[in-house]
Design a protein that fits this description.
antiviral defense, Alpha-Beta Plaits, alpha+beta
Length: 223
C-alpha cells in the first residue's frame, strides 16, 4: 500500500461541514470533501464528473500548526426575499483558520497516487484551501510526497513542516471504523452535493516522535 502526502498551508483556510445560508463554519482540520475537491481540481475534473475513485482513498491529517479561529462578518444589501418580491439586507458570519499548516496523507493504489502526485505538480484548475479566495502558500505539492508506505507510517515519519521540532504535541487524525463522526464523505459528484458520514480517530503524537523540519529538499531549494 502506498501513501501520497500533501501540504495544506496558507494565510486563510476554511473546511466547512455544516455550512448553510448565513453561517459558514470550519472544521479544525481539512475535511475529506475539501481534499477530494482539491485533487479533482488538480486532475481537471468537472463538478459533474465521477469522483468515487478519489473518495475511496483513506485519509489522514497531521496538524502541524492548528492556526487561529477567526470570523469574517459580512453584509449584503438588496437580497431578494423568499416571496420573490421584497428585498432585504442580510448578514453573514464566515469562520476560517488563520496561519494553519496541515500534512495530509491519502492511502491507496500506488499507480493512482502517482498520477495524483503528478497532477498536484501541474494542476489543471486553480487549487484552494476550502474557499476559492483562500489560496495555498506554499503549494500542496511535495517533491518527496509519494511513499511506498502505509498511511500512519508516512504521516509520522515526514519532517515537521516548520523549523526544528514542534513546540508541543501534534494531533494525528486517521480515518477509522469508529470514533468521531464527520459528514464529509463525498457520495456523488460535487454538482449533486451529496455527503455521507465517516469516522475519524484522533491521536496525540509526541513532539519528540516527529522528525525535525523542514524537509531536506526545501532546505536545498528554498533555504
Amino acid at each position: 500500500m502506498a501513501t501520497l502526502l500533501l501540504r495544506l498551508q496558507g494565510p486563510l483556510q476554511s473546511w466547512g461541514t455544516r455550512s448553510r445560508f448565513d453561517h459558514r463554519d470550519t472544521w479544525p482540520y481539512p475535511t475529506k470533501s475539501g481534499v477530494v475537491g482539491l485533487l479533482a481540481a488538480a486532475l481537471g475534473r468537472d463538478r459533474r464528473e465521477d469522483i468515487s475513485d478519489l473518495a475511496a482513498l483513506r485519509m489522514g491529517v497531521r496538524v502541524d500548526r492548528k492556526g487561529v479561529l477567526r470570523v469574517d462578518y459580512q453584509t449584503a444589501q438588496g437580497v431578494l426575499a423568499a416571496d420573490l418580491k421584497a428585498k432585504r439586507d442580510v448578514q453573514s458570519w464566515r469562520y476560517f483558520l488563520s496561519d494553519a499548516a496541515f500534512l495530509v496523507g491519502l492511502e491507496g493504489d500506488g499507480g493512482f497516487l502517482r498520477e495524483l502526485h503528478s497532477a498536484l505538480k501541474r494542476p489543471r484548475f486553480p487549487l484552494y484551501l476550502g474557499r476559492k479566495g483562500y489560496v495555498p502558500s506554499p503549494p500542496p505539492y511535495l517533491p518527496d510526497g509519494f511513499l511506498e508506505a502505509p498511511l500512519v507510517e508516512a504521516l509520522k515519519a515526514y519532517p515537521y513542516l516548520g523549523r526544528g521540532r514542534p513546540q508541543g504535541e501534534l494531533l494525528l487524525v486517521l480515518e477509522a471504523g469508529e470514533g468521531r463522526l464527520v459528514y464529509d464523505q463525498p457520495s456523488g459528484p460535487f454538482s449533486e452535493r451529496r455527503f455521507a458520514a465517516r469516522y475519524v480517530r484522533e491521536e496525540v503524537l509526541p513532539q519528540e516522535a516527529v522528525p525535525e523540519g523542514p524537509p531536506r529538499w526545501e532546505v536545498a531549494h528554498v533555504g
